[in-house]
Amino acid sequence: MIGRERELAELLRLLSTARDGTATTVVLRGEAGIGKSTLITALRREAARTGFQTLTGTGVQSETSIGMAGLHQLLHAAVDRVGGLPPQQRDALRSAFGIGPDVTPDRLLLSVAVLSLLEDIAAVAPLLLVLEDVHWMDEPTLGMLSFAARRLGPAPILLVASCRSDLPNPFEPLRMPELTLGRLPDDVATRLLAEVNPALGPELRARVLDEAEGNPLAVVELGRGLAERGPSEPAGLVSRLPLPERLETSFAAQVARLPEPTRDLLLLAAANTEPALGELAAAAGRRGLGLDALAPAEQAGLINAVGDEIRFRHPLIRSAVYAAAGPALRTAAHRTLADSLADQPRAAWHRSAATTGVDERIAADLDRAATTLMARGDVGSAMRSWRRAAELSGDGEHRASRLARAAEAARQAGFNATAQDLAASAAQSSADPVVLARTGLTQNVLALTTGVIIRDPLDLGSIARAAAAAGPSPAETGVPLALLMNTAILCSAHAASDGVRRRVLADLDAVAPDADLPHTAAIRALLDPARHGQAALTRLRDTPPPAHPLEALSLGLGAEPAHDWVTAAGFHRSAVDRARADGQVGDLATAAVTLGRALAAQGRLSDALAVAEEGRRLAEDLDERLLIALADAVVAHLHAWRGDSAGLAAALDRSRSLGSSARIDITLWQRWSAGLADLGAGRHFNAYVHLGAVSDVAGLGLFAIADLAEAACRGGYAEQFGERLAAARRFAGSFDSPLVRMLLLRAEALLTEDEGLFTAALEVPGAGDYPLQVARTRLVYGEWLRRQRRIGAARTVLTAASAAFRAAGAQPWADRAESELAAAGVAATAPAELPTAVLTTQELQIARLAARGLTNKEIADQLFLSHRTVGTHLYRIYPKLGITGRTALREAIADQA
């Protein structure tokens, strides 16, 4: 290990840290040939000597477009270990590898499954994960490994990745420690060359050192090349080219000296997407060759066989073999591989690699492959297959249809920029209204999560009309209505003008004139809640939740404009349950955040915080920025209720930093949260400013009208508030929302100090579904009663308010109620703290599920965690609650489960 002693010592130190049970990661950075692979080889030897297992995956430049090629390389030898995983995770991995049930797992579920598998393997013996040339790894593999790397905790795992210094490090966002390899000093390079070719004369030695420029691989290969040619052949040195090209040229020269059968097999190995010797043997057999033809390459040190795999000694050797072969030989190699592979998607990809120009037969083959890959959950590969199919399509509409499907697959895979580009290309190259509707739907969904609105809602309405008139196939019948639903959601979230909303309503009349359908009722409510909110509530309250999570979510959103948060929460909870059961993590993230919002509006703080934080965690894993911003706005609101000023500030800062101003609904929750906190702290002017901005948004801002009334009356702005109250009353007069009716009565009672309005607010049918708002009404009513010196009546309502606030953990409001009670002559009593108050929200979720009797693996499937992470949380939960096991857990949180 000449010249790399320090770096090797550091790697061995990290190996020791991992052996002791602390997961460790490092990225080796440096130019091609700088010694990354040599160091990894030495590390792998030491790991094997000290009892480590090793899994290796290598990025290959020709495979960056092949989804999960890196994951297949890394885990194919461990697939037989997936049986111990939680059922959903087990089925997801087996499906992705084409050896199990035909499920469609979300990419986040696959990521959790990968993490669980790695932790299970490491539980048997320490694990070394080697990821070479990560700059050439496919995006799905990188996404899953990044997910796992962020969550490796107390596990004996060392992850070592190598990356060229002249290419972006895909693990950069993880801020993994880097070990940078520089070029060798002259004296060290001289010592290395002497080891390789001690007979080299001074002149040639100086020439080699000059050409190699301190690059160890160049020193070795150029010195070895001269040794093979003999000292009398200085022409054996390659001409001066950029260093990687010189190395490839050197390797190509070594390959050229091999027998033709050996070169044929090396090309097949270089073109294949997996290093399996069995696959290479099958392809070689079609050419009448056996694996014994590889012997000369192995003797030359170009390849080595490890178990049932063939590996090139250095990635540049593989590149050199592939590049030097020329187009005709590469095409023939891909055809041979396609004919020998049993896996249809991989065979289709090789056939496409052997094809130039237009070929509808190959395009249709890739189309079928993409459908299979979607069923396996390999959405990124499906996207690439449809995109390549589009390139090979002879018919313009076939091309556009495949681009549209590729765009939606890219969106589902989390490649938002690619999805936008593909959708735009599909829209530009098609006149088919169904294709245009599909691309518009993809762009609309992206707009909701990214804030980038590409399409005019009026154009999308016209497209929906045309698609409905075209009579789409049964599989496409829901696309026009889904497009209008998403357009309506966007109009509501972005506060579109009345003119735009009226046009979209006209489009809805043309597409689905039956106003009694749940979906059309929901769309109408989103677009014009004052006119259609009550009809939507009447229809939705009697509608059972649909089976598909996104449909249930849409209907829940349709109940929100008329402020029936109980009905909305019912649909959102159904969406959460269905998405959780089906392993659809993207849908679960959205549904969990919207359920958290609905529960927050109801005042169910603990439940709201649990699901909102779960949704936020999943949205962060999916990099859905606007969904994260909405989740943080809801979390901030819950912290405002609880008087947690630090939690409120942190959540608001995170939410605002994500560019959420593009969504008026997110901005409203941010300002409502800030205003509620100011009101609870007695900062009435600040509260009036924040809450006034909320209430200025007709419809959506109704939930803050009573808060604004309190800020106005206590801050001296009662006269200005009267106009706002009248406008709110006019808007809400057409629909029956128990919440809004109670808030309007409380607001007017504060303004007029009319006792009948206070009592009427408390008697609104259905108001009990909003316990904290009832408690708030009791609080201001009790304060009014005490000012009227009706002490006995004040004590009764203030005691009820205090109990509700304490039960919910709404500390500022409980303090205020108890202060009023003290003024009314009631001595304060120390509240009993709930046992679960010491738990984090995720720990409480796990404790509740464990108390219900779920196993660690069942909990892991519910919450998309590794089952060992669940176990770690439980071991933290037990001492916090002062218990020792599950039986005691059931008793400790019996009232919380």
At the first level of CATH, the class of the largest domain is Mainly Alpha
Q: What is the radius of gyration?
A: 33 Å
| End-to-end CA span | 59 Å
The helix tally amounts to: 45
Q: Report the helical percentage.
A: 55-70%
Principal-axes geometry comes out as elongated
Extract low-pLDDT stretches.
Answer: 231-236
Labels describing this entry:
66% helix; five-stranded parallel sheet; mainly alpha; 6 domains; single chain; two-stranded antiparallel ribbon; Rossmann fold; 897 residues
How would you sum up this structure, described in words?
The chain is mainly alpha-helical. It folds into six domains: 5-180, Rossmann fold; 186-237; 256-341, Orthogonal Bundle (Arc Repressor Mutant, subunit A), CATH 1.10.10; 360-573, Serine Threonine Protein Phosphatase 5, Tetratricopeptide repeat (Alpha Horseshoe); 624-681; 836-892, Winged helix-like DNA-binding domain superfamily/Winged helix DNA-binding domain (Arc Repressor Mutant, subunit A, Orthogonal Bundle), CATH 1.10.10.10. The protein is 66% helix and 4% strand. The strands form two sheets. A five-stranded parallel β-sheet has the order 2-3-4-1-5, sandwiched between helices. Strands 6-7 form a two-stranded antiparallel ribbon. Helix 6 links the parallel strand 3 and strand 4 (157-164). Helix 23 packs antiparallel against helix 24 and helix 31 packs antiparallel against helix 32. The chain is elongated. The two termini are 59 Å apart. 57% of the residues are buried. Mean pLDDT is 87; it is low at 231-236.
